[in-house]
Amino acid sequence: MKWRSIWTALLIMPLLNYAEDLRKLNAACVPAAFSEAFFKGLRRSYASLTVCRFHQDVEVVVKADAQGRLRVERISNDLPHLTDMLFDGLMAAPLRCALPPDQAHRMQFAFQMSVDSSFPECARHDKSEDLTNQVLLNIAAKSPANWPAALQYDKPPAFDTVERIMLPAALLRKSASLGKARLLLLVDEQGSVSVAGMEGADEPTLAASLKAAVATWKLRPAQRDGKPTTTLLTMPMILRVAEFPSDLAHPFVQVAQGGAALLHTRHDTLPGVETLDAPLQAFYQPAIEIPEVNDPSLSGKTVEASAIVDKTGRVHWPEIITPVQEDIDAAVLHRLGQWRFHPPLRAGKPVVARLKVDVTIP
Prior knowledge:
With 362 residues, this protein is α+β, with helices and mostly antiparallel strands. The protein is built from 8 helices and 19 strands. The chain has helices at residues 22-29, 32-46, 80-92, 120-123, 132-136, 169-174, 204-214, 326-336; strands spanning 3-14, 53-64, 70-76, 105-115, 158-161, 177-187, 193-199, 218-220, 222-224, 227-229, 231-242, 254-255, 282-284, 302-309, 315-322, 340-341, 345-346, 349-350, 353-360. The strands form 7 sheets. A 4-stranded antiparallel sheet has the order 1-4-2-3. It is globular, with a radius of gyration of 21 Å.
């Protein structure tokens, strides 16, 4: 498929000082190398997706430390591999402007793209219609007529923030493909998501991993008569190891991001991060959130986990060393797998290292 058009806009807006001139700030901060690298990767990754028209808005909040190193405080984006491309671009071509240490700046990325209408699905829809929900995510524009009245909507929910699903490494070592699963998701009036039903994920650790990931997602809620309403979504998933960007058949596939080669690496065979030239510098490190604990005896216990940090600072294949409870273990592994660091260095060269993390249950 040939790209008919790609429109790009990069805007950076200060979170704490809206009086900045946006044009000057954009010119001063965004290096051409970042834009070129990011959109080259964007075109490459989406060349295999059957989307007639696509629009994406991404918001990133960043801070800089005293040495000018960036740290992402928050990101709002519903396609995880785009998050990786943004992070790659920012780490490879940092902002040119000097951000005040520890002052947050909001960066907004907006882009649209479309493919030619030779794709059969495009011919069946209005070309002005944004088909992201209908084609890519299989979300119906209107709720089925046979649904209960309480779940009916006239405007569908839409994904706002999605984190990558971390499939259990122990299962993937036995088979690189875990088949398919179908989730029934409950989306409430605030856009919070939970798993209401599940097919095809019979292994308890796999089911716990899927539930832990879904609990972190955020959607724009469905609407009925102009008001937010609770509804259900059916979400098919392909559960396998996939390399980015060559295998993007489904947006929620487990994307290894270069980590497939590390899947069978034993964590204890790698040198720990304590052997590096300097402590790991976090680039993106969202807090690990423990689900509500109903068993008082678990309070104060520690979940020990480990993961592989590759030469680019990506975290791969987190594992639990001392399990506590399946849902708690899955929550720790999921969030640990979203972390990103500046490249680990030993003797001045990027290396692969082992990261150990202890999480205490409140």
